[in-house]
Amino acid sequence: MVSFIINTYNRLPIKITKAKGIYIYDDEGRKYIDTFSGIGVLAFGHGDSFTKKAIREKMEKFLHVSNFFLDEDAEFVSQFLVQQTHSPGKVYFGNSGAEANEAALKAIKKVKEGIIISFEENFHGRTLGALSITGFPGIRKPFEPLLKDIMFLPFNDSDYLEKFFKNNGEKVAAVFLETIHGSGGIKLISEEFSNVLMNLKEKYNFLLITDEVQSGIGRTGKFYSFQHFNLKPDIITVSKALGGGLPLSATIFLENLSNVFRPGEHGSTFAPNPLALAASKVILNRITPDLLKKVRENGEYLKHSLIKLMKKYNSIVDVRGKGLMAAFELKNIDSNKLLFTALNNGLLINVLKEKIVRLLPPLNITKEEIDEIISKLDDTLNMLYL
């Protein structure tokens, strides 16, 4: 069959007919465990009944009304997002993580001139501005030249960072940061690096933007992942889980940046979509202190379970993560063979950089479901390394 869709993704050879919780079902009746929740989008798993109910109720009222009208759910979601920062601020809504980062870039360009720093293996999106600050040379190169005055520094290298600022600190306008690399392999910022970065921020007064597109909305056991570290951002970008499975993003401008845009300076025809806002309200209301505690507990359980696997298979060389944002790294593997062995074993996995398996299970996953994932991983690795 000839497809008229541009081939921008390596799609799996299964046809999905339904999905519920951590499970996806194909047209042949096979059941698969989805270990990455639609790449971190489905905070409470597939087919969440509360989210679907909210979308249906909103849909009966209207699908779209344009930005000439204010949806009351937009007020709730924006207030909730700002209050979780414990600072005054305001929100710009978009449709994707890339759009959220584009809004942040545009704001920086309005208020500050100078170098924008990003880090190697940061991922901020594929639109031209977001791509300009994404730390993967291979995906930037076909589209260069991109935005100018962007510098990529090594992640977690405090000495290099201090030397760079010693020579260029007065020229730096902003720093973009993923506290936990998503596409970069679930690498966490070190305490030393975060402390050095904040000391430099105090000295040179640059803007700090934390990209929480994947790591925010409770994923790590805090509402925002920067809250695990000694960081105080000026701008926060969120998306993925925010819309409950529908496109929605937010760029949160704090303190003096709260009114960075005037009417007409930035906008979107579709954002914020009313259905996504209704879903978001339901999602956010369920990110409670008790849930965040459970995410931390189950995150530790998942990590320890993966460490047990690492002790069993010497092909696993590292286990890392925070909360329910986890990964294990393998050596001497054929990533394609790994992916399809898992698939044939009823397990959907996400392989990064041909050697890192990223796990983003639902925030309400149970220990029994974690055990089921670990058992499937064990079977898959056993098949590969017999």
- Give the helix level as a range of percent: 25-40%
Q: Kindly provide the name of the CATH class of the largest domain.
A: Alpha Beta
Please indicate the count of domains.
2
- End-to-end Cα distance, whole Å, is 37 Å
Question: What's the average pLDDT?
Answer: 96
What is the CATH architecture term of the largest domain?
3-Layer(aba) Sandwich
**Total of DSSP H or I helical runs spanning 4+ residues:** 12
Large-scale geometry? globular
Superfamily (CATH H level) name of the largest domain: Type I PLP-dependent aspartate aminotransferase-like (Major domain)
Strand segment tally: 15
Gyration radius, to the nearest Å? Answer: 21 Å
Major sheet: 7 strands, mixed
The fold-level CATH name of the largest domain is: Aspartate Aminotransferase, domain 2
Keywords: Aminotransferase, Pyridoxal phosphate, Transferase
Family: Belongs to the class-III pyridoxal-phosphate-dependent aminotransferase family.
InterPro entries: Aminotrans_3 (IPR005814), Aminotrans_3_PPA_site (IPR049704), Class-III_PLP-dep_AT (IPR050103), PyrdxlP-dep_Trfase (IPR015424), PyrdxlP-dep_Trfase_major (IPR015421), PyrdxlP-dep_Trfase_small (IPR015422)
Cofactor: pyridoxal 5'-phosphate
Summarize the structure.
Belongs to the class-III pyridoxal-phosphate-dependent aminotransferase family. This protein is α/β, with parallel strands linked by helices.
